[in-house]
Amino acid sequence: MEIMEPETENSPEGAGISQTAQDYIDAQRQLEIEAREILPYSFDTCTKPLGPLRQLIFACMKCTSNGSSPAGICYSCSISCHGSHGDLVELFSKRNFECDCGTTRMPGSCCNLRKTHEDQPAQGNSYNQNFQNLFCQSERYEAESEFGTMYQCLLGDCCGEDWFHDRCILGLSLDGSADSSDDSGDIQGFPDEGSFEYFICWGCISANPWLLQYAGTPGFLEPVVCREFAVACPGQSSDATVSRKRKASAISSEGDTAETDSEPAIRVGGPSIAAPEASVEATSTKPCKLPQNKHPDLANKKVSLFLRSDFRDHLCQCVSCLEKLKNHKCLLEEEATHEPPLDSDAGESTGHNSLLDAGEKALSSIDRIRAIGWFTILTANTLVHCFAKPSIRI
C-alpha cells in the first residue's frame, strides 16, 4: 500500500510525497527503539521507600516555581508523575537522596506511584543550585548551544556535586567556546581527557586543603589553577547540617569501564561503606604517607584536582588520614548508583513487543468492516491535515 500526500503551494512542482505503509511502520518502530534507548528502565516504582540512595535525580521546574523550595524526584516519578509538565531538568546522579515527589516539599503534586502528597520529606537531602537549573560557577547549561565537556565534582561537600565547564575550570570565558574544539584536551592548560577519571572542584579543595598535598603524586595529576576572575564555588543548602563527565551538548552514569557522551555508565552494587574498625586497628602502627605539600604557593588560589582511576590505591591509610577520609566515603570506595530495573515490557531493540505490534494485535481482533472504517477515518484525517497545514499561522 502506498500513501500519497497531496502537493501544497510550497511544494516543488510534481513533488508529491509518497510513503508506503511499511515505510511508516519502520519509521515508527525506529522511533520506539530510540525512545527505549533513552528511557530503558521501568518507571512504575518510586524509590522513596528505599531510603537515601545515590540515584538519578530530576527537578520539575513547574512544581518548584514561584520561589518554592527546591525539590528532586526519582527517575520513575519524573516520567509517571511529572512527564507531562514539560519542564524537567536532569541532574544526573546525587548521593544520599530520597525522592521528594508526594511529600510536603511539593504540596501541589501528588505522587501517582505512592498515591500520596502528604509524606514528610527526607531531612538529609541536600540541594544545590542544580535544582534551580543552574550549573557551574557560570550558572549556565544550555544543551543545544554548549560546546566542550562538563565534569561533575567527585567530592561535592562544598558544591553539592555540581557540574563544571572545562573552560570555567581554567577560568576562561565561555563566550569563545564556540570557536574552539569540542574536546577539553585541545584547550591549552587542560589535562588530556584520557589521562584522568575524576575531578574535584576548587571549592571542595579549599574546604579540604590536605587533598592538595596529593597533587602531582601517583594517582593524581598536577594541580590546575583557575584564573582570578572566576567566582567562588556555588554552595549547597540542606535540611540537615551537613569519572564524572559529559559533553556539554548532551541532554542525558558513574564508573570507569564504559563512557558515552553522557555521564559514565551507571554501576549497580552494594551501598558505599565506611572504613571498618578493623582497618583502623590494622593501620594504627603504620607511618603516615601523606605526601609533603609541594605547592604551598597555591594555598590561596582556586585549584582543581584531576584524579586517575587508581587514585584510591595511593591514599595514605594511617589513622590520622583515615579520620579525614571517613567523612568522604567516595574517596575510600567507588559508589554504587541505584539503577531501576529494565522495563520488562520494552521488548528487544528489534521492535518486538512494540506499540505497533500491540496495535496490530488489537486491530486484528476487530471485524474487517470496522477495521476498514478506522483506516478510512485515519486517512481522511491525514489528508485534511496536509491540505490545511499551509494556511495555518501560529
UniProtKB/TrEMBL annotation:
<keyword id="KW-0479">Metal-binding</keyword>
<feature type="zinc finger region" description="UBR-type">
    <location>
        <begin position="44"/>
        <end position="116"/>
    </location>
</feature>
<dbReference type="Pfam" id="PF02207">
    <property type="entry name" value="zf-UBR"/>
</dbReference>
<dbReference type="InterPro" id="IPR047506">
    <property type="entry name" value="UBR7-like_UBR-box"/>
</dbReference>
<keyword id="KW-0863">Zinc-finger</keyword>
<dbReference type="GO" id="GO:0008270">
    <property type="term" value="F:zinc ion binding"/>
</dbReference>
<dbReference type="InterPro" id="IPR003126">
    <property type="entry name" value="Znf_UBR"/>
</dbReference>
<protein>
    <recommendedName>
        <fullName>UBR-type domain-containing protein</fullName>
    </recommendedName>
</protein>
<dbReference type="InterPro" id="IPR040204">
    <property type="entry name" value="UBR7"/>
</dbReference>
<dbReference type="GO" id="GO:0061630">
    <property type="term" value="F:ubiquitin protein ligase activity"/>
</dbReference>
<keyword id="KW-0862">Zinc</keyword>
<feature type="region of interest" description="Disordered">
    <location>
        <begin position="244"/>
        <end position="268"/>
    </location>
</feature>
<feature type="domain" description="UBR-type">
    <location>
        <begin position="44"/>
        <end position="116"/>
    </location>
</feature>
<dbReference type="GO" id="GO:0005737">
    <property type="term" value="C:cytoplasm"/>
</dbReference>
